[in-house]
Amino acid sequence: MNTITREGVIYTRVSSLKQITEGNGLDSQYTACLNFAKNKNIDIINSFKDGAISGNTFERPGLHQMIDFIKKRKGETFIIFDDVSRFSRNIEDYYFFKAKIRRYGGELLSVKEDLESKNPINRLHEGIAVSTADYYRAMNTARVNSRMRERIRAGYWLFRPPVGMILRNKILYPDKANSLVIKKIYEDYALGRYITYESIKYSKEAKQLISPKNNRPYRVQSEFIKKLLTNKLYIGVIDYPKWDIENINATHDGFIARDLFFKVQERLQSKRRKKYGVVGIEHFPLKGDIECGSCSTKLLGNYSTGRDKKKYPYYRCDSSRDICDIKPKNIPRDIIHDEFIELLKKARINKDVLKLADKIMEDTFNKNSNHLSSIKNHNQIKIDELAKRKKAQLEKFIQTSNPSLIKALEKEIESIDRQIKALEQVQCSEDDVIRFKLQGKTLLSHPDKAWQQADSNMKKIIFNFIFEENLKVIDEEIGNTKYSLPYRVMGGKTSPSGGLVELGGIEPPTSCVPRKRSPS
Ligand SMILES: [Zn+2]
User: How far away, in angstroms, is 473 Cα from ligand 1 center?
Assistant: First the structure.
């Protein structure tokens, strides 16, 4: 009689509910393992199971619990399972986990295969058993794929619904909120209100796209916008290029009209042609603030080379000719700037009002800086919280060797970093406000001079302070000027006694206070 106690655990797994009903369930596996242990004189001290979780070995909580368990033990632990396919159906995973378990003093024992023997024939058997399990798994995937292919060809979308849609009874429907926002983005894009993905990214519409998973705004990246603007599911058509499936009429209706969709595709195409490079805002300070009077596209800034090899700056309507045939497409930058300065001269505040205006500037500044510091405080608290959480997760990260936990922690830490970065970006530069105040008087008495002396960032601030909307350019002229409210009130010849109360409540738009207009 063997007096040394041998201890072990039992691991069982089913990959589907069907297996349970077909008599290959957890209980029958467990009984087989228990009998096996008895014959080998092994005391069973614990058992672990994974139920109805298919696929990836890394996603099995039972397996990971078991590894944690043997890791904490001293000495040898036998791990008993019914056959290798219960343990892993993936060759790479199998040998990975086997090596890991051995490191912690574990020995794999299969009821149906001899795995631990050093005998070469047994090693071959082990390899064949693992390969066979792997083979059936792959075949199974292929069978499922071919069934799915047929379903897709029949017009059913089988994957995650896109943003703005939900699956109900296996049919896609537009959701209540996001689909409306997406429609608005399509319409605006078709009209040329956006030039770049960037400008959509920062639009107020993009911020209204809420993920149903966590009820928070989506993290909108350029790739996200691109998918949004090219997704044919929105017009009731299925494309699945991975399986060579294209232009299948779906069983669901879209919520974007086809002609709108194709208009957007056309614009995206012309965007890709990109005949004109993009030049920095320092050279074209009105970029983003002026638009084509005919098609409402924001004008781009560029240089052309003349016959004399000199570079000439101009603003340009870059819509293709079939969308906008305005002439000329290119307008010399300096013509626009001269006109703009004329406009600013008209925005000079007369002397009588200036005395009052000085007070108003101070009020608006104070209001603004209070506002800013409260944003700052609020964000700093959040950043501190996130930093704390990050530290805690990093500590866990250093201590664990569990691969699925490592993966999850890595993901979380990355996500925390992204959140911190986003919050830091929102942080406002107080400099802007201080400079705003310093320039305040000049800005009001001589806005044209203030603008000419300012850097590109300050130029934007001045623009937003004086004008409420983008300026439209037609026939090389700026038309439709709408001054902002402080100007409408202060600009008048008469003393604005009636408007003063209202004025106190108006904050000059700065680079960090949300603007009414979409940024460039
Ligand atoms: Zn145009």
Answer: 9
